Structure formats: C-alpha cells, structure tokens
Amino acid sequence: MMWNNCEDAFLFDIYTSSTTEFTKRDVLSQIAKLFDPLGLLVPVISKAKIFLQRLCLLQIDWSQKLPSDIAQEWSSFIASLSYVKNIKIPRIVLRPNPKEIIRHGFSDASEKAYGAVIYLQSVCDSSDNNTFLLCSKSRVAPIKSVTIPRLELAACLLLAQLTRKVLNALKLKIDQVLLRTDSTIALSWIDTPPHLLKTFVNNRVAQIQELTKEYHWSHITSKNNPADLLSRGIDPQFLANNQFWFQGPDS
Fold first, then answer.
1. Parallel, antiparallel, or unpaired: how do β-strands 9-11 and 113-123 relate?
2. Domain termination site, one of 60, 89, 118
3. What is the pLDDT of residues 205-243, one digit of tens each?
4. What is the number of domains present in the chain?
5. Which residue from 96, 108, 146, 184 has the least number of CB within 10 angstroms?
6. What is the pTM of this model?
7. Per-residue pLDDT tens for 139-160?
C-alpha cells in the first residue's frame, strides 16, 4: 500500500512469484505480502484466505507441492493480482462543508468467511456520489461447522467492534450511524434481551448491544449488501472497477 501525493490517492504494488509450483507455505507467504491495513482490498484477500483454508481442509503439508489442478488455480489468482495495480483509492473521504455526515456499516457471512465494511457519506447540495469506502475487516469461517445464522451474528459483532474503533479514531461529529445486515435471524437476536438466548448467541448479542446501544440496526437485501463481496471473495480483475465496493450501494 502506497500514497501517491500528486493524486492524493492510495495505490497498491503487489509482488508475486513467477514460479508455477507452490506449497502451502508459499501460499501463506504471498497472502502475508498483501499489506492492506485499512481493508480496502478485503474481497481479494478473503479469496486468498479461503483458498488457504481449503488447503488445510485437504490436509496438505506445509512443504508439500500442491496438486497440479490446485496449483494452476493459485497461479491464475497470482497472475490476476496485476489488476490491483490499477486501483486508485482517494485518501479524502469527506467533502468540504457537508450538511450532514452519515456513517454506513454493513455485515455479511457465508459458509466460507464473514466480515464488515464501513463507508462515510457527506450529504451535500451536489448530486455527485459523496459516499466513500473507509475500511473493512473479514475472517475466514471456523473449520468446525458453524450455522450461517451464527456466522451472521459473528459478522454483526465484527461490525459493532469496527464501528466503535472507527468512531473513536475519527474524532468527527457523525450525524447518523446506520448498521445493516441481510440476516433477519441475527437482527431478531440483536433485538432480544441476552438472558433469553443460548450461551453462544447470548455472549455475542450482549457485546453488540453494549457497543451499538446508541445506533440503529436494520435489514438490507443481499443484492444491496457490499459486505457480500468480502464474505465470498472475488478475483482481483472484478474488484478494480467495482464501484459497488468502493462507494457502497445507492442510498
């Protein structure tokens, strides 16, 4: 991750290997090189982490060469990382003198990964798009089977934690904080007193309610949920010009 001071934008330079033979250790090493502290490329990094977990499920040793079909799949992914070099993300995420500042948060989960993404919107007189990606975070789903509703709840907790971290760091007057998930089950749990819920759900709901007690949770369709991209992972060529990821859904 680099800063271009002429364009005042973040850029990414990815160093990749030209080899066609890989081990699980090589895969981990390449993932570690994807330095992205703000989570701006998380859909791509999620794709790589999901691939690594698949190798773990196949019980491939760290020094063992990957089977040819799997190695080819990883080689194609590595080659596609060149598209990341085309991505330019504005450092400035607020318009001058906005009438209102709205912080949008979205969470989502799949059987492979879960995560959260946050945007900042400047409400201005102009009709220009004034919503920009601020940060995101994801985690691969546990190898031990967990139900989708519980993973969705884990994603909501991740969003609640990221929300608190962002609000503490920004030191801005935020007029609205909107939190959204496409899971109706997770929403119903969040609206329930924790002591009425089973232990796993109870613990997470209690944390979410404490972290977001001042804010409103609501439902969003999966189609309009940008966090869906990070919970499933996408190839770099599909992220480079993906306005849905970098600017969020229409209001």
1. unpaired
2. 89
3. 999 999 999 999 999 999 999 999 999 999 999 998 899
4. 2
5. 96
6. 0.92
7. 999 988 899 999 999 999 999 9
